[in-house]
């Protein structure tokens, strides 16, 4: 159908609406189909094991079923050790071969050198577990080390992240590895174990982090049910606060205003007392201009002129606030009345408080699909093997195939050449366009995530608009306002939601690109490029905020009238501009109430959790679980309480914004006559001194 036009005799929501922005709807469907195709292709070519599991020098996984390095005995063959310490160092001209990596069943647990065990049988049998499969024990020791078939030395190691790292430990402040402070480097020289410390420092950080994570996990296992109880308390408190806003909104707002006035008044009094106290003191009459700039700011507090300036500034602010209250008192009363009305609307559409869970679930699906596709795309590369040699060779650096390398001409012309695993890559068309597919993956994530958020906003707006435009509340409301609004949004306005989310996604992708460029240019010395990039980042940040504001109000107009995105955005923008003062007052009043509500809920639940988990409540002192870190459940409760309160207040904020736009439309389109009655509540009509002639009050 054609987009619904404005009706000058409009009396309520237009339920007989048509499809809007069909082109964008088709474009979204095509993009989703393409996104699914990209995901299938990525899952076909990708292998996440490349991220999780280590490989040997041939690019083969360690300890994985179906691979040449699969071991049946226990422990599984899943560790990687790096062979270092060859007797010869390759020249700089040919490409340097990577350190040899092999898969072993377990890490070495003793100090050994190949030169020391080459003539024995027992130790050599243990040592060969850390040599390449082609190791020939009959070869001379110098040849074995030169061909890098075995490491020059073994060091006691511990497994970490499926890799072997030196088992570094500190005893009485002395760094030791395997109860030794020195080791033989395999070349007849003794070295201090501190030389291994730098290489294993990051490994120790990971090990300590893993131990910390285990303790945190233990805390969660004994306190999870108490955490859930705390989150339930936060949920109940949020619901009670929203209900109480119907009765206490006006009191809280006026108490806040009076407190601000009193605080400013005390500030003026304090500045005057300081100004009077400094009278006659030496050096207090020096002017600020004569004193100049001082790094010690306390010097200024000893000048009478400083306190006089503070007093004048506070007096001006106090006067401005009082004048604003005198001229804006009616608009403040309207804002309070709308907030109370929003509390009633939420009470009639209680299911709206649970709707953010649906939005959260859909966002989780988007994030999971994007993350999995990104991982599979990044692991779609194939193992690339290159020719490495220690002498001049015309084939040096070229790609090769290990299966046919020994029978190729390369080994004949370059006897010391090796075909070794270099990196993961590829030269097919698919591999060349992987970066494009990753970019498409990021773009689709932003588009779909914004679409899900838009769907949630237009659904809530439609439900609350049906409350406002019901002349007899709640008798004239649909039986299931939330589900009706959700169905209308998907059936008629998928294209409009796709349009708005597409515009926002484009801006967000540009911002991500600018952040990436900024990260790459951090080491650059071009100050002009950095300045230009900073300006662009600032501009697109502002643009994103504006588009989010415009989209939110456009979705409300779509829910009310069923018009297309551009028409809804234009009408919403000019409607708000015609009532800019009311918008500013309502925005600040609701911001204050939401801030107060979040602070009250999060603060009270957080304090309760602190006293409970630190066993400071005598009544339940024995009930609190023993913990490694008591801050783990406390922070979890605080963060969870904030998210719960934010979810409740986001619904409430959408309700306030929807009722506000409906209220402005009601004032502009209706006049209280029998043909065009006001749909606002009796309290708002009384506040505005409006009446419905010939119509009974709702």
Automatic annotation (TrEMBL):
A GO CC annotation given for this chain: mitochondrial outer membrane
Membrane topology label: Multi-pass membrane protein
Keywords: Antiport, Cell membrane, Glycoprotein, Membrane, Mitochondrion, Mitochondrion outer membrane, Phosphoprotein, Transmembrane, Transmembrane helix, Transport
Presence of the UniProt keyword Glycoprotein in the record: yes
Catalytic reactions on record: ethanolamine(out) + n H(+)(in) = ethanolamine(in) + n H(+)(out); choline(out) + n H(+)(in) = choline(in) + n H(+)(out)
UniProt keyword annotation of Phosphoprotein present: yes
Family: Belongs to the CTL (choline transporter-like) family.
UniProt function note: Choline transporter.
Protein name: Choline transporter-like protein
Originating gene: Slc44a2
